[in-house]
Amino acid sequence: MNNREQEVLDGVSRITGVRSALLVSSDDGLVVAESTLDDQATEAAAAFAARLVQRLGVLTRTLHTPPMSVLLMQATGGQLFIATGAEGLLLVAVTTNDVNIGEVRLALLDAAGRLN
Amino acid sequence: MTDDIATLTLQLAQDPASLAFVPLADALRRRGQLDAALTVVTRGSARYPEMADAHDLVARIHADRGDGDAAFDAWTTVVRLVPDHLGAHKGLAFLAYRSGDLGRSVKHLTAALELAPDDTTLASAIERIRTVMAGRVVAASGKVAPPPEAPQRSATESTPTLLFDQQGRVLRGTLERMDGVDASEAVAAALAGVSREAERAARLLNLGEWKALAIESGAVNFELRSPSSETLLLVMRGREVPAGRLARIADKAVEQARHWLEEDA
Known about the structure:
The complex is a heterodimer. Chain A is of the alpha+beta class. Chain A has helices at about 5-15, 40-60, 100-115; strands at about 20-25, 30-35, 70-75, 80-85, 90-95.
């Protein structure tokens, strides 16, 4: 992990309601860098994020639409945001449900762009 | 896939004149690494400017990136090199359809059908577009005036929606690709069981029960819901429909699906 990656992830995790921000390898679902505020299971979040992107990537290929740029899984107790970056990397954020969805989405897309 | 990419990358590094750039770029494209794919195939096609399949791949990558003009240029180059290139005619038909030039779309689809007469999806796409064109002609001639107070379809009714079960069988609705080809069965098969992945992810991350998956894909947004433990519902709208509105449309579609499932039980 380098300073730039850490700085970008810290920027995401500073948003109110973000519990963890991760940089994940989409190939194997391993954590490349992380910024966590509590005892989040970051390895599990990374693995599931990569798995979901792989599963749902089939949808865009089947319909001949451009590849997925953002995925949001909403659950009763929180949310999982995933933005696809360059070089096979995913920007992932685990948040509470009262988070500003638009703000997190833009922060992840910005982070993905900065890491290109 | 990763192994393939590593092998092909090594092969290309050892021999820059290798034709491995085509499968390598295609593998990168399939993984969504469009910038890398474009870099690889552009370098390769510069070395082999008469290689139609390389330009075809350039076009497909541009199309994936939503750059229709660049895709058009590349597919036009393919047709110049190989007038009977099936992929290029399909691609040009898709671009023409997307830009509203239905006549040109039919022309390329017809050329593609001549090259692949057993492809029933091409014939049905032509038929579908001709039906739309016939409707436009009638409306333009004024022979049939539209009903003055024709009821507008609700957002839910005009939203492509697909209900399918966990075994990948379509229960209701249809989803089409941008070129009009029905992709319902393929989508249902591809997404079967994905709710179990979401369920497991939510549980292990202490997020409770999953409720929705929202997917942004270029010009299209999707929302995936689970109206019942055994079914999944996918709604699709263009990006002009904001994510928040799509979520509300999905709420209504879920209600309708549950009603239909209860009636059908």
